[in-house]
Amino acid sequence: MNSKRQPPGPNAGRPIPWPPPSPDRLPRFPSRPDPMSNPSLFQPLSPRDIADLVAEQPLAWIVSGAAGELSATPLPVQVECDADGHPLHLLGHFARSNPQWRAFADDPRATVLLIGPHGYVSPSWFADRTRAPTWNYATAIFDVDIELHDTPEDADRLLRGLTDDMERGRPGAWSIEEMGERYASLRKGVVGFQAHVRAARATFKLGQDERDDVFDDILRGLWDTRQHTLAAWMRRFDGGRGADAIAAIEPRAKPLDPEIAGFIDSVIAEGRRITAGRELDWPERREIVEQVRRPWCEGGPVPARTEEIFADTRHGPVRLRIHDPAPGTAKPTLAFLHGGGWAMFSLDTHDRVMRELAARAGVAVVGIDYALSPEVRYPVALEQVIDVVRWLQDNGAAHGFDASRLALGGDSAGGNLSTGAVLKLRDIGEGERIAAVLSYYAGFTPDCSPHSRRRYGTDEDMLTAKEVDTFWNYYISRPADRNSPYTHGLLAELEGLPPYFIGIGECDVLAEQNLAMAGKLLASGVDVEVKLYRGAPHSFIEAVAVSSVARQALEDGAAFLRRRFGLGRAVAAAHG
């Protein structure tokens, strides 16, 4: 038997090493017909449907006892499956103070009841209003024999397994070790169990019996009322007939610019080839993205001086890379922050972008090698940026910088850090330090709309909606950080910020929030230049070697800096 626990998160944890069941205890799937008028329509398509239902909604009722003397306790459970996905065991624990567990020593039989996504279906959604209301839902019932495991080791395995699965991927994920000595007393207060599944049956009543037009109306109604989990389960069971229901009520994705599409396809394909389906830790991921992007950074302008120095910050020295197109003269400076979800990329992946901006604008560009998450989380990188800004103004003259003309900018996560920094500097009375902000497709909110996720956040896009969620969860330290104005710029008061240039890729999952930020800046009286680049996805300025759109975006950003710093095109060309 190949037993594997199916956790709520995307990655399965190691199974708890309980002994395998005897052959007469292997589950029957399903054990008897579902009590519906047309039961065959509402049965699982595969045993994995039940396992996924438990993983997504682990809270269940444990019911036992004779008629009239029933006991019921709501408990979180985990499921272990065989190699084909059939549920074998449910794992959980009772509070020792709960009398229900003691009865299982005499009679191990119990029923486990679980209700998953569900929702009322209103006829108001239908073109045909003669239809009646209904209810869509997914439920599972398990007939089990409960085997108690009442040792400290059992309790420890169960508590750690459940906690690890539930905390996986959360911002500031908690671990049992943080309880310290209190954990020992908590562990004494629980009794573990393994429920051997004798029979499993489920009802997935998800519109299978509806006419095609009514089914589409239900999907659209769920979408419009933000019941996306239930809608996703309906799509899982729709046999393909609902494929166009949601697409019909939203704009279709625009085609990518052909030059950028070649860059995107190459980067994605090469990354997948090197990864070869392996699960990677963050250092391994960084190594691969560096390798994939290295050829795209070659070529381009060669500044007269490139130098690396270190700036002191409250979190220790931070490496800076200087690209100076005209050494020996004090000049405006752009402090640049690379993208990569606060977790990847580097001064190397964005070296050509920085060289292009230095040459085109005639300014010194200083790349800031801020600390990456998840090893280091908010607000460390933001505080490093603020300290580097102060350091540049205090020490810049020795390196050819005009401290009175300092811009801050970056792409993606770097754009987020730029906005967080100017907001923080303004709030502590140092807003005059930054004269301009250059921002390309920044993350201004952790919340991507459902439409943007469907249009430009798919697995085939440069930045997927899942990646957006992952990056945010690994950057912030705790859930409340999602609503800090220094991370979530759309929640901030924006009055008094320096002038902005916002470059937006039309085909980017973050395009909506960039447009929203531009509008809010304008409404707050901030001078804003905004440009939408047709056919451009996320990360498109990295394609400068092959893309005229990327070159234009960098030229537009450079022109913005020249205007803000009073540099003519001829001066910039001479410097470049």
Automatic annotation (TrEMBL):
GO molecular function terms noted in the UniProt entry: hydrolase activity
UniProt keywords, alphabetically: Hydrolase
InterPro entries, per database record: AB_hydrolase_3 (IPR013094), AB_hydrolase_fold (IPR029058), GDXG_lipolytic_enzyme (IPR050300), Split_barrel_FMN-bd (IPR012349), TR_PAI2-type (IPR007396)
Residues annotated as domain Alpha/beta hydrolase fold-3: 335-541
Domain of life from the UniProt record: Bacteria
Annotated segments matching region Disordered: 1-43
PANTHER family: AB HYDROLASE SUPERFAMILY PROTEIN C4A8.06C, ALPHA_BETA HYDROLASE FOLD-3 DOMAIN-CONTAINING PROTEIN-RELATED
Protein name: Steryl acetyl hydrolase
